[in-house]
Design goal:
Length: 307
């Protein structure tokens, strides 16, 4: 894989930051798109491109073997204007795919989300797999989920010619924060640690480590025979938030002293333990995620309030 040329979109983001480091460690040549903020990573060629604008994408994809399309607005929960999420997610994906196809890119790996598969379903004991799609107006579904469904569907419907396409659907991503930014599932760990929650909602959260998500991206990029395949990227079934809190309390001692102990009622759509299969990623990609306690503690240590 040495000297493969890879474009990563959204290079200043949490997951992309780990993906870029993983690619550099494996000897790839990395170009990454950014909007305004540029991360401090050596050895990367940063180029400017916005998902809402055609400018920059043709040049970004030129001379590249693989594209890892990670960029998308991440804002779960209620939003004022759904199009703020849906338009960049869907049209941006099409811009990236068009530029990649026209540049002769071999394969695109698209970062979709479990939000595109396992949301909007009534509580069920069904084990979610890659065959599932979220229900657009079902219980617990939000604009972010719809943006991920629309983007992934648009990608599958896009006329990609000989270019290969693989999608990854991570659950809530936790792990050591990069700098001061708090992203994705780390928000919930931060809210627990700072005592900003009056109690612990009786909810279940499926989690995965950001380092394992980065590893899955590289595996999806290089594993032969995965054109047209989706992969759920989850450590296992959803786990109770109170167990995450207990892991932090045991592992972090004093730094976890503000975590509340009272249990609150569940939040709509999250009060049921979703069963999620990672069998396909393990079998086809040879993916082997680490223990959840390691992920929770690494996130906690990086976010623990000081003083
Ligand atoms: P993040 O840190 O917020 O990264 C998102 C990236 O998307 C940022 O770099 C952001 O650019 C970029 N972006 C947003 N709107 C853009 C636009 N209009 N044009 C260009 N770039 C734009 O979030 P993340 O957690 O790393 O998420 C990365 C991907 O993983 C997303 O596709 C997300 O849906 C998916 N995912 C995340 C989770 C999770 O729990 N974190 C779970 C499943 C899937 P700026 O740096 O300029 O803001």
């Amino acid at each position: 894989m040495t000297k493969q040329r890879v474009l990563v979109t959204g290079g200043a983001g949490f997951i992309a930051g780990y993906v870029i480091r993983e690619l550099l460690d494996r000897g790839c040549r990395v170009r990454a798109t950014v909007r305004a903020r540029k991360p401090a990573i050596d050895g990367v060629e940063f180029v400017q491109a916005d998902l809402l604008d055609d400018a920059g994408w043709t040049a970004a994809a030129e001379g590249v073997d693989y594209v890892l399309h990670v960029a998308s607005p991440v804002r779960p929960g209620p939003v004022e204007n759904e199009d703020d999420l849906i338009v960049p997610a869907r049209r941006g994906t099409l811009r990236v795919l068009r530029a990649a196809r026209d540049a002769g890119v071999r394969r695109v790996v698209l970062t979709s989300a479990f939000h595109a598969a396992g949301f909007g379903h009534p509580p069920t004991d069904h084990v979610f797999t890659e065959r599932d799609w979220s229900v657009l107006d079902g219980p617990g579904m939000d604009a972010y989920g719809r943006s991920k469904v629309f983007a992934e569907r648009a990608a599958w419907e896009f006329d990609r010619g000989a270019m290969e396409l693989t999608t990854l659907l991570p659950v809530a991503v936790l792990g050591p924060a990069l700098g001061s930014e708090v992203s994705g599932g780390n928000h919930i760990v931060q809210r627990l640690l700072t005592g900003r929650m009056p109690g612990i909602p009786d909810i279940f959260l499926p989690i995965v480590d950001v380092r394992d998500v980065a590893d899955a991206h590289v595996r999806a990029m290089v594993t032969p025979g995965v054109d047209g395949e989706r992969f759920l990227i989850a450590n296992g079934p959803a786990i109770p938030l109170k167990d995450i809190a207990a892991t932090l309390r045991t592992g972090l001692g004093e730094a976890a002293s503000r975590i509340p102990t009272a249990l609150l009622p569940p939040v709509e759509g999250l009060g049921h333990q979703k069963q999620i299969s990672n069998e396909k990623a393990r079998r086809v990609l040879g993916w082997n995620p680490r223990a959840t306690s390691e992920t929770i503690l690494a996130a906690g240590r990086s976010l623990a309030p000081t003083g």
